[in-house]
Amino acid sequence: MDRRRFLRIHVDLPGTVKLASGMELPVRVFDVSGGGLQIHCDALDSEIIAPGGDCLDRHGRPIEVDVCFQPESQPLQLRCRIVFVRRLSRDRYCIGLSYADPLQSDVVEVERVLLNTAARPSTPP
Fold first, then answer.
1. Are the C-beta atoms of 114 and 34 separated by less than 8 Å?
2. Contacts 24+ apart (CB under 8 A), 7-11
3. What does 35-91 look like in DSSP terms, one character per residue?
4. pLDDT interval class at 17 (50, 70, 90)
5. Residue 39 near residue 27, CB atoms below 8 Å
């Protein structure tokens, strides 16, 4: 049984994660929902984004990052909190994020894109 609150749409888009330090790291946005998204990155970038695979900073607060990507023709920047870090293979990690503020304007745009994507009929190969 799927317990997710939001419809998830699989994507595979290039993106960047912007850290509080200003550093930007390349990632792939893997799926998007009305509640958050998942990104994939290599082991080194995962360690920089979430040191030790931790979701909290050294003060015990959730780590927040900006994820930038462009579905369709609309560039988006979403403020997110790290929820989990999973190792997928030797040098591939998945980082799950939830939106830090579900009312930020680009979340509304994500939801519009999701609805348009989900409503499109699939085309036969």
1. yes
2. 7/33, 7/34, 7/114, 7/118, 8/32, 8/33, 9/33, 9/114, 9/117, 9/118, 11/71
3. SEEEEEE-HHHHHHHSGGG-SB-TTSPBPEEEEEE-STT--EEEEEEEEEEEEEETT
4. very high
5. yes
Confidence (pTM): 0.84
Q: Say if residues 109 and 76 touch (Cβ distance below 8 Å).
A: yes
Output the CA angle 33-27-92, nearest 5 degrees: 100
Residue bearing tokens 């930007």:
24
User: Is pLDDT larger for residue 117 or for residue 57?
Assistant: 57
Token output for 46: 């995962």
Residue 123 phi, psi (nearest 5): -100, 135
Q: What is the DSSP letter of 20?
A: T
